[in-house]
Each structure stands twice: as C-alpha cells, then as structure tokens.
C-alpha cells in the first residue's frame, strides 16, 4: 500500500508554469485519528479521504469530475465533504452551511469540455488551475469559481488526470503547493491503473443462442464434464433458479439510479428557487423555503397595492370632444368630488343618455335634478352599481326643439350637473 500511494521522485512530471518552487512530493501519510480502517474502502472515495486527511492545511471538500466515454462532458464521479474546522465555525457563522450546500448542489452539475469553466479548462490544458482569494475567484471568468466564492470558498484548485479532474475547495487561504499536486496526480494515476487492471481481469459474460451465459461458467462446466454422466445430470437437475443473481443486483442499481435522479431533480428545483429569491437568510433548504414563502407574500401585497392604485387612477378622465356627426360622441367631466362620464345619442326626438360616475353624493338624484331643470321628459331609466364603486345610469328622454343637437344637449347636461354638486 505504501508503494501505491507514495509517488516516485524519478517519475514526477514537469510542474505547471505558475509554480516557482518545486519541492519533491512526500509520501502520503494519514494523521492519527484518521486511520484507513476508519475510512470507507470504496476505491476513489477512500483515495479522496486519504488525500484530504493527510494534508496539514484544511480542505473543505474534494470532488472528482469524471470524463464521459466520448470525452465531451465532465460529470460528478465521487466526492468527500469534510466541512470546516470546529474553531472556524465557533463564531456562529453559517459559512459551513454555505459550503455544504455548494457541495450538495455540485452532485448534479456537469461541465462541457471546451467551455470556459474551471474544470474544463484544467482538463483541456492538462495543467492544474489554482485560485486563492476572493478577487481571483471573481475575476477568473468562470461561473464555478464565482459560485464557490459566494458560498464561502477562498481557495479553489482543479488538478487534471487522464480520466477526469480533481477539484479541491477550502474556506481558508491556501497558497500554491506543488507537493499536493504531485500527491493528487500520483493517487489518481494509481486508481486509474487499478481500475484498468480489474476491468481486464474480469471477463465479460456473453449470452449464447440458447439464452445461457457463457464465459464465466466455462470453468465450472469443465469440472462437471470430467465426472460421470449420471451424477452430472442429477447434480444439474435441481439447479432451478427462478431469478438470476444478476437480476437482484440490477434491481438494486435501478433503485439507486432512480433515487439519484429524484435527488437531482429536487436539487435542480431548489437551485432554481434560490436564483429567484433575492434575500436568503441561510443556505439550508428549510430556510430557503421559508424565505420563498415570505417573498411570495410580499409580492402578493405589492400586487394588491398596485391594483388599488390603478382603481384610483381611473378617477382622472380626459375630456374628449370628438366628432358628433353620425357617431356616438363621448365626453367626460372631471370635477373635484367625483368623476362623471357622459354619453349622449339622439334618435329622432328622443335621446339616450348614459352617465358613469362614482357612487358618491347620490348620483341618481343629481341626474334627475338636471333633467328636471332642462324640462326633459323621462321615458325610461335604469340604475346599476358595479362593485359598489361605480354607478351606471341609462335614461331615455324626450328632447325639446331647443336641444335637438348632441352638443347642445350634452353641454346643457354638463352645466346642470356642475350646478348640482
């Protein structure tokens, strides 16, 4: 194990151009309290934890972005979230929650190779990218670095390998370190070689014409072929499998994939909700939902206020003196206590009058008083109230000879209505 995780000084690659000091990488050791027995043995997960726990500086998380078979996409391969030091969060700040949220959202992220993103840039150039400080993260021109800075990350590193990119993030300011880069590359190359050896040593089962798997069971069949025919038949006859062992594993994988897709959709929706809520108190999901509910209530109050303001603005009516020949002229009267809209149309010796006004100061009484003063005989009248605010009056009257004109009748009614205020 020591030989696998200890990089050789003779095979060290040429350091990237941004390093001026090139110390030789030291063997990877795990500090007390973080022994390999206490860590999971899931291959890449174990390697990431060993790398983080062996460093003197404190790294918050590690993510390995795995390249797709067509070398077009970098997606989440595995990761380990370590969190912040206890002393760093003793002041009650929520930077640890921000970093944990940033790591959780990263589970659903992917990067197209060739785009100006930090992991894609490191994989395309085969050179590590090391950013330290808020200014460097903000001016990198990459959304990934800006999001990391927003969630309390001060140092962001991307180290490329043949199968992907290792991303390290820390809430502390950590300077460029060639030893760390060498250790990471050595561990990743060891993991790649081990995975390749395992894939070559395990033959792929093939399906024969009769529906049975061949390849993996050839050695078992050869052992049975050396025995006698009778016992062989008796031995094989009770081997009736209702369900192959592979189907159970396949079902488990399907459940895991379904759960992963469900969490991915949920994280995407929380991420979209986070982008539209302007003020977020904390980065946990419960606080995000509470802030979203508060924001929706504020929006609803603003909508009601705007609707009330729109109703008040309807009181301002512009007087329209349109062409009265053969049409339906409409005129309005704006006065201090209320707003009146007056429509007049002559039909022979009769006239149809429509008055729209606010339901204030008894509009029907004022209209009847104006008709009485003008000595107009009322044939028909209707009064209706709309939403307890607007009153509409329709009146059919007999027009005398002196007022046989739309303009004359309208002007006379407006004068009388003004006097009755």
UniProtKB/TrEMBL annotation:
Keyword Nucleus: yes
CDD domains: bHLH_AtAIB_like
Comp. bias regions, Basic residues: 236-246
Keyword set, alphabetical order: Coiled coil, Nucleus, Transcription, Transcription regulation
Skewed-composition ranges (Low complexity): 1-12
All residue ranges annotated as the BHLH domain in the record: 250-299
GO terms for MF: DNA-binding transcription factor activity; protein dimerization activity; transcription cis-regulatory region binding
Protein name per UniProt: Transcription factor
